[in-house]
Amino acid sequence: MGYLKEVFASRELLANLTLREVRGQYKRTIFGQLWSLANPLAAMVVYTFVFSFIFRIQPDAGDPSGLNVFALWLLCGLLPWTFFSNVINSGMGSLLINAGLVQKVYFSRIVLPLSYVGSIGFNWLFEMAVLVIALSIAGAFVLPWIPLMLLTMVILAIFATGVALMLSVANVHFRDTQYFVSILLQIWMYLTPIVYPIKLVATQSDEIGGLFGSNITLLDVYQINPMERFVSVFRQMLYDNRWPDPNDYLTIVIWALVSLVVGVLVFRRSEKGLAELL
Amino acid sequence: MTDQKLAVRVDDISKRFRLYKERNQTLKATVMRGRRSVHEDFWALRDVSFDVPEGSTFGLIGSNGSGKSTLLKCLAKIYYPEKGSITPYGKVAALLEVGSGFHPELSGRENIFLNGSILGMSRKEILSKYDEIVEFSGVSEFIDQPVKNYSSGMYVRLGFSIAIHVDPQILVVDEVLAVGDAEFQDKCRRKFSEFRDKGRTVILVSHSMEMVREMCDHAAWLNKGQLVASGEADPTIQAYLDSLGEAGEREGGHGGQAA
Ligand SMILES: Nc1ncnc2c1ncn2[C@@H]1O[C@H](COP(=O)(O)OP(=O)(O)OP(=O)(O)O)[C@@H](O)[C@H]1O
Ligand SMILES: [Mg+2]
Predict the structure, then answer these.
(1) A35 in a structural domain
(2) Is A155 in contact with A252 (CB distance < 8 Å)?
């Protein structure tokens, strides 16, 4: 409880550090904030070309929205994923990058990883706004889903925060963490149904049947991945325009809470020794 | 003397650093050495105790590597001592490095708000002191320029000006003033005495004995992590200078014998 109070007391600092990132990021560029759209757009073009045009992957049309645009379907999963992976990457390095600050000034250290969640979240919000506009133009009726979408974004942010907190501490102890994790994130992305629909996994899984004579299927194992659920929830809301499956929603809430609690506990335990380890 | 109020009590503190032989911060090293950790203990501070009276200007002196900055960092809650305690009675602002947290691309104005909040000021506080801060720093012409265009002296001026306006009970300064020009150093000196007149405490580290002699009324002398002397400034400084002189003479003597 005392810890939460301390973090709450640092909210202005958190806001200022977040602003530092947001404002500093695209200073002295001509296109400014528009640059934050460049990466997702480039990824969209590449993945659409490779997976839709060449591999002919065809996700089901949105139900009930009736949408059938691969690029939009892709973005509904890709944007949450890039947010997640950026938060992990930057949050993990936040203590090292700000070593000078940690060694010279006392403040609640948790604001450092949190400030990256804030600044990356800000970019994400911008991307999602553009996506919502694109979906509406394509004929989906997304507007009523915006409040739920925002809530889900917060839940994903909480999940990412917890993971980033754990990894930021691990990274101070073992600098290998960041290199290891960036590889892991690439693998993780392809283990999540972002560029291909999960029905392809389900087909394979049915063919293989129960693993090792049990009735656990490949699909069950595949679905342990929390990001699979997050992506699926985002698609149900934005692409299909229907209520997300309550089970899915409950699962992501639980993942988020567990991740945050563990993350904060780990972070708090090692916070005091950080300055001399850096 | 005993019933004088204290600003800081340093009670028998020891601070240890672990010095690792190999690069320890790799996974490989950890796996290789298993659960054993190969390190040497290095005590940067050992059983140091002294009191800093309230309202004093306190100098911390000693040669390079004697543990002065380490002590200040313990006071600023950046390091935590292995043994003993260091208790400040009042709000501490530590100026261990000026302008930490400045973002080079942001303007001086934006950095005042950023740095102020890093040092623990609220937005309202900063707003109310904003003019004073700019005025004291003397960089008002450049306040809307990104700070990366500042000279190192201007950088220090702005950083110092922010820190001093945190208005702490105890101000801790680790040799950061050296970069400012004579005018600014003079300004700081006046600010320090203003501070003292208000009953605030200043703890400063400096290698300039003239500065310590001129500004401080109390001092402590550290050598290799141990306290050699503390108390009134003049005798402490003299003892330190004498020890330097002796060391110098001894070396000189050796030289003479050899020749
Ligand atoms: N993070 C650290 N890890 C290991 N050793 C450290 C660390 N910080 C300081 N030391 C060691 O502790 C000793 C005291 O360092 P400190 O910076 O306190 O000296 P100082 O008195 O401030 O010296 P100077 O006058 O040069 O500023 C030094 O021998 C230094 O090598
Ligand atoms: Mg020092």
Answers:
(1) yes
(2) yes
Of A24, A176, A275, the CB nearest to B78: A275
For chain B, where are the E strands, in sequence order?
A: 6-20, 39-53, 57-61, 83-88, 92-95, 170-174, 201-205, 218-223, 226-232
Beta bridge partners of B226: B223
Rounded to an integer, what distance in angstroms lies between the CA atom of residue B25 and that of residue A271? 17
Within a domain: A10: no
Query: Virtual CA dihedral for A84, A87, A92, A94, nearest 10 degrees?
Result: 180
CA distance B233 to chain A (A): 27
Q: Which domains does chain B have, with CATH numbers?
A: 1-32+39-90+169-251 (3.40.50.300), 98-166 (1.10.8)
Q: Which residues of A touch B110 (CB under 8 A)?
A: 19-20, 23
Which site among B20, B100, B144, B205 would you substitute to test the A interface, given the most A Cβ atoms closer than 10 Å to its Cβ?
Answer: B100
Query: How does DSSP assign A160-209, residue by residue?
Result: HHHHHHHHHHHHHH-THHHHHHHHHHHHHHHTSTTSS-HHHHHHHHHHH-
Q: Any idea which residue has 């001093």 for tokens?
A: B164
Residue of the nearest CA to atom 2 in ligand 1?
A: A276
Using omega within 30 degrees of 0 as the cis cutoff, is the peptide bond preceding B81 cis?
Answer: no
Kindly give the confidence (pLDDT) of every residue in chain A, 278 residues in length, as a single tens digit, with 9 standing for 90 and above: 678 888 888 898 999 899 888 888 888 888 888 888 899 999 999 999 999 999 999 999 988 889 999 999 999 999 999 999 999 999 999 999 999 889 888 889 999 999 999 999 999 999 999 999 999 999 999 999 999 999 999 999 999 999 999 999 999 998 899 999 999 999 999 999 999 999 999 999 999 888 787 888 999 999 999 999 999 999 999 999 999 999 999 999 999 999 999 999 999 999 988 988 88
* Ligand 1-lining residues (CB < 6 angstroms): A 276; B 17, 19, 42, 44, 62, 64-70
Residue A17 within any structural domain of the chain: no
Rounded-to-integer distance, Cα A76 and Cα A82, Å: 11
Q: Which residues of A touch B119 (CB under 8 A)?
A: 105
Residue A277, both tokens: 């380890």
Distance from CA of B25 to the nearest CA of A (A): 5
Q: Positive or negative, the Cα torsion across A41, A44, A48, A50? A: positive
The pTM of this model reads 0.89
Q: Which residues in chain A have Cβ-Cβ distances shorter than 8 Å to B97?
A: 100, 104
- Chain A: nearest CA to B1, how far in angstroms? 32
